[in-house]
Amino acid sequence: MIDTIIFDFGDVFINLDKEGAINRALNLFRIDSFDHDMIKINQAYETGLISTDTFENFYLDKYPFLSIEELHDLWNGIILDFPEYRLKFLKTLRQKKEYELILLSNTNTLHIDYVKQTVPFYNDFKKLFDGFYLSHIINSRKPDREIFEKILDIHSLNPKTCLFIDDTPENTQSADLLGIKTWTLDPSTEDIIELDKRLTYLSL
Asked: What's the total number of domains in the chain?
């Protein structure tokens, strides 16, 4: 019996353009692949280990032909729209009072600030959760085991009664190892509003 649902944010509720963002970054930086230091700085930013100023200065120093506006446009270009029907779905799920609802997202200050500016119902969305955890605030990121253990501990959860929904297999595989039930949602063919079907399947 599932009593807790843990949701990812990107490509579960808000649509992302991951492939397009990667291609635009490679073109703008004039590179064929991302350097190790770029991956490292991005992960440090996602876990709140460095400030936005430090993050920005790293890229502006590494690519001095960039303006800060170009950097911001590139960084936030991954974020698309948040269909309001998904908010309505979540409100209906909340009203049923059958599950503890938790959000667990890998993100960063620039992305969340952008979402707050472009999604008018962001605060309403946030209020629907019993726990709302962003990687740069809790200093951990998926797929690290630590971030799942934190959530389980904070909410005194039994992993066997939790369902974790994420679009990244690496993240759901990590949760699987802790005994958490998972749904690796494919945003190209599936939608979070199909959750009832998944819950029915898990209860069989």
From this structure: 2
Record the tokens describing residue 190, joined without a space. 């599936």
Could you tell me if residue 168 is left (phi over 0), alpha (psi between -120 and 50 degrees) or otherwise beta? beta
Range 162-188 average pLDDT: 97
Do residues 141 and 162 both lie within one domain? yes
Note whether 44 and 113 are same-domain residues: no
Give the residue numbers spanning the domain of 160: 4-15+81-203
Domain co-membership, 178 together with 137: yes
Compute the C-alpha angle 168/44/144, nearest 5°: 40
Same domain, 106 and 192: yes
**11-49 per-position pLDDT tens digit:** 999 999 999 999 999 999 999 999 999 999 999 999 999
Here the contacts of 28-35 (C-beta below 8 Å, separation 24 or greater) are: 28/63, 28/66, 28/70, 28/74, 29/63
Cα separation, 69 vs 172, in Å, equals 35
Q: Report helix, strand or coil for 91.
A: helix
